[in-house]
Amino acid sequence: MRSVNIRMDTSATLPDGRMYAILAADNRIKPHGVPPTDPERVKLHQTMSAYAGTYTLDGEKVIHHVDISWTTRLGQEQIKSASIAWMVTF
What share of the chain is helix, strand, coil (3-state, %, to 5)? Predict the structure, then answer.
């Protein structure tokens, strides 16, 4: 798997213990039309990832337990640093 710079990382943690994350590479193209051409569609799929699951808090870490994934993250844990500044209580 190649490493890319992430331009956009949208994620949310919900009060029921679920979470989701959507990621897009910084070199993501904008298609010329709708629908995109087949080559554009391939590039769009290669520069996006998304996953969802449950989460747990462990000190200053949030651990995402992936149970649905756009790519190969299924069954993996994604460990992120946590900050009270971005944690929102509903």
Answer: 10, 45, 45
CA–CA separation, 69 and 86 (whole Å): 23
Q: What confidence score (pLDDT) does residue 5 get?
A: 59
Reported pTM: 0.68
Domain ranges (residues) in the chain: 6-81
Q: Is the bond preceding residue 15 a cis peptide, omega within 30 degrees?
A: no
Which of 66, 53, 60, 52 lies closest to 80, judged by CA?
A: 60
Report the alpha-carbon distance of residue 76 to residue 40 in Å, rounded: 29
Compute the distance between CA of residue 47 and CA of residue 29 in angstroms, rounded to an integer: 8
